[in-house]
Design goal:
about 190 residues; mainly beta; 5-stranded parallel sheet; 1 helix; 22 strands; about 5% helix
Length: about 190
């Protein structure tokens, strides 16, 4: 399937994801759009945010955040119905990021937000520190390196989850309490 490509321009002079004037198509991207957040938006160095004052959650097919660029999710929801990657930064300060494909951005800053891995496709996730992490997929998930969960860890996927490094419970030790099968995960978690 070929998706339309939409690029962040920052022409509106705001960081609002839901402001159509910030996009090269002059419309807010939707679930059928591949979105690129460039490192140097043509309208200036303003990067998108999904925050409480924004009236719109964000939805894309695939999202690429280029190195030097960033996206902030605060009090809103970003849904990526494909891969979320690139060398840039994703901050989930207090909102939710739903990802159905790979999660391979350069950096992920957790804040108090939640990352949900959903969908049927197999996915690879880079090593990150998460606040809350929910893995609810029918496809296999590989966490490609040592990771930390500071809040709740929920694993309900039927496709299997593989940790290529240690999973550290950086919070209060409750990560195992949020998992269906404590035995399969207990060897992977360090406290």
């Amino acid at each position: 399937m070929v998706f339309a490509q939409t690029t962040w321009t920052a022409f509106a002079g705001t960081a609002q994801w839901g402001d159509a004037a910030n996009w090269n198509t002059f419309s807010v991207p939707g679930s059928g759009d591949d979105v690129i957040i460039p490192s140097a938006p043509s309208g200036g160095p303003i990067f998108p945010s999904l925050v409480a004052v924004s009236s719109t959650d964000g939805t894309t097919a695939n999202l690429t955040i280029q190195a030097g660029a960033s996206v902030t999710v605060g009090w809103r929801t970003l849904t990526v119905n494909g891969n979320l990657g690139g060398g840039g930064a994703l901050t989930v300060s207090s909102g939710t990021a739903n990802v159905t494909g790979n999660l391979t951005v350069g950096t992920l800053t957790a804040g108090t937000g939640t990352v949900n891995l959903t969908g049927a496709a197999a996915a690879t996730v880079n090593a990150y520190t998460f606040n809350n992490l929910a893995i609810n997929k029918t496809g296999a998930v590989t966490i490609a390196g040592p990771s930390t969960v500071n809040g709740a860890l929920t694993v309900t996927n039927s496709g299997g989850t593989t940790f290529s490094g240690a999973l550290t419970d950086g919070g209060d030790g409750d990560a195992l309490q949020h998992h269906r099968d404590h035995r399969s995960l207990s060897r992977a978690i360090r406290r």
